[in-house]
Design goal:
globular; 5-stranded parallel beta sheet; 34% helix; Oxidized Rhodanese, domain 1
Amino acid sequence: MYKTWQDILPQEVENKAVNQKEVQLIDVRNPDEYVTARIKGSTLIPLNELPVRVNEIDKDKEVICICRSGNRSGKACEYLSSLGYNNVKNMVGGMLEWRGNVEKD
């Protein structure tokens, strides 16, 4: 199967999150995972809610999907790409590989 999205390293995501306003960080984990540690500025849209909340994601911006390990976010990238989102990236390694600052509740 041809992959219509790109992978992005956590270090690259950290640079983009700090330096670029035209990027959307979409965290597709469950709420209990999100409150434990999340990237500042990310939006929680659990993977199972993505079909009904996709209108919250701007097609004109770069979209970076995030999860715990990169698996669910890959599925989110596949889904968004199938809907015509052209600038979608999967943070490989997910939050397990994230070394930047996190917010917690």
